[in-house]
Write a structure and sequence with these properties.
375 residues; alpha/beta; 10 helices; 12 strands
């Protein structure tokens, strides 16, 4: 599609990506997963989610994620409807006893802090901030019973290594855009929650959480004291249903199926190390290219904090929005900057389903467009 303000530039076909989907969520869905879904259209779609046909998929998904993440004994995969945004609200009822600490360094990491601050049954949370493009560190606090970290800030392309503070309290990690593309150590985490529409190449509307024994105990203890909670936000209900390989209310069956196929694809090729390796290769290509160009630079200054799954690249001397418009006319989509960040930049999804060679082709296409736009 073209608009009246899009320059007429024709990128040579031999430097175009084979698949031009670089969105940061919803992200590229592998076509073969959709073909596999179509193959079960009459035996799986339109069936009851409390019958074996669907429960087998949920069971496969739960065991597959446990294997992918190398979860220790006693951990459980919980799931429910509503996405990670929904899970923030559920956590204010079912995981935080009195006060939480939040690391806030972008649009999405700030939202859980806001949810905790507005919960009338909780004390004012401790919020530690840093400038966009960086991340802060958790600080041990005896008054805190839950530490909320974000593995990958989707709005800025900042990633952080997950380290448990030297303190009591659960560690709750928003891994929405990192899970499946970044490695992590379960010993440093108690709840690792995410949605399927990023590294797992599915649709939104579902949350999943890998929960340690300590987290499961916390869920049960809070439920036992009788804290009021809406049933749809009740993590004890979600736990009980998940252990039966089902959700409390009707899930999107297509989302479950595609997510399970993505997990199995990762496992069949070598697991999390393999999937994260694909994203790492793409990131090395993207950041190396940006550092070698006089019109581009990685937005995140510290290489150790640059995300391997969401790359943000500042442009200088050329309008990034125009570059994205030209790319879009060639089927290269969703490279626009995060709207609220307000920078002249491109934001590139580098999730495992995105072929690293397509990222290399994207950089060649950008070079061509920038050259064509030069006065």
């Amino acid at each position: 599609m073209t608009t009246s303000d899009t320059p007429s530039i024709q990128i040579p076909r031999d430097i175009l990506p084979a698949d031009g989907r670089f969105g940061c969520g919803p992200s590229k869905v592998r076509p073969i997963a959709l073909d596999e879904l179509a193959s079960v259209a009459t035996t799986y779609m339109g069936t009851s989610h409390r019958q074996p046909t669907v429960k087998q998929i949920v069971g496969s998904l739960r065991t597959g994620l446990a294997e992918l993440f190398a979860l220790p004994d006693g951990w459980e995969i919980l799931l429910g409807n509503g996405g990670a945004t929904f899970f923030w609200d559920a956590a204010t009822f079912g995981l935080i006893v009195g006060r939480s600490q939040h690391l806030s360094f972008g649009e999405f990491s700030s939202k859980f802090a806001a949810a905790a601050a507005s919960a009338p049954h909780l004390h004012e949370p401790v919020v530690i901030t840093s400038e966009p493009g960086t991340h802060p560190q958790a600080v041990a606090d005896p008054d805190v019973d839950a530490y909320a970290l974000t593995q990958n800030e989707t709005s800025t392309g900042v990633a952080m290594r997950l380290v448990r503070p030297d303190a009591e309290g659960l560690v709750l990690v928003d891994a929405t855009s990192g899970a499946g593309g970044l490695e992590w150590d379960p010993s440093q985490v108690d709840v690792y929650y995410f949605s399927p529409q990023k590294c797992f190449s599915g649709d939104g509307g579902l949350w999943l959480a890998a929960c340690s024994p300590a987290a499961i105990t916390r869920i049960r203890e809070i439920a036992a004291v009788g804290r009021w909670v809406p049933a749809s936000l009740d993590l004890k209900i979600a736990l009980d249903n998940s252990l039966q390989n089902q959700t409390y209310n009707t899930p999107a069956l297509a989302t479950l199926y595609i997510l399970d196929r993505q997990v199995r694809w990762m496992l069949d090729h070598g697991g999390l190390a393999w999937a994260a390796g694909r994203s790492s290769t793409s990131a090395a290509t993207l950041y190396g290219w940006a550092e070698s160009r006089d019109f581009a630079s990685p937005y995140v200054a510290n290489p150790a904090e640059r995300s391997n799954v969401v790359g943000t690249i500042d442009l200088d001397g050329v309008d990034a929005a125009t570059v994205s418009k030209v790319l879009r006319t060639h089927g290269i989509v969703d490279t626009e900057a995060y709207r609220k960040l307000g920078r002249n930049q491109l934001r590139i999804g580098m999730f495992p389903a995105i072929d690293p060679e397509d990222v290399a082709q994207l950089t060649r296409s950008i070079d061509f467009v920038v050259d064509a736009l030069a006065p």
